[in-house]
Fold this protein.
Amino acid sequence: MSATADHAEERTNPAARLGFQPEQVVQEIGYDDDVDQELREAIEEVIGSELVDEEYDDVADGVVLWFREDDGDLTDALVDALQLIDEGGDILLLTPKTGRDGYVEPSEISEAAQTAGLAQTKSFSVGKDWTGSRLVTPKAAAKKR
C-alpha cells in the first residue's frame, strides 16, 4: 500500500486514525447498547478480528474502555484495564460527549489517569456521541515522543 493510500485510510477509518494495527488483540470493556457500533466495526476491520470481551484471559495489545459517569470509579476501571494490557499498550477511554447521558468531566478523566499511572496523550471526537482519550503508560509515552 502506498503512503498516500495509508493516509487516505487513516482519514476514512477512525480506527486507523486512533492507532490500531492489524493483528492486534484489543479487549473491550464496558460494552452496552449505547456504544458506537461503527467505531467497533472499524476497529475490528483494522485489527482483522473481533474485539475480545471482558472474559478474555490473556494480555491484550490494547483496551477499549467505554465509561459513563454512573459506571463506578474511573480510577479503579483504569487500574483494572492496565492489568489486561501488554507493556506499552494503550487504553482508549471512550466517554459520552458533553450534554449526553453519562458525561464524564475532563478533569475527572485527567485526575483518574494520573492516579492510575497513565499519561493522557490526546482527546478527540469519536462519532456523534463519544469522546476518546488515549491513555498510555509513562514508558509508552516516552517512546512516542
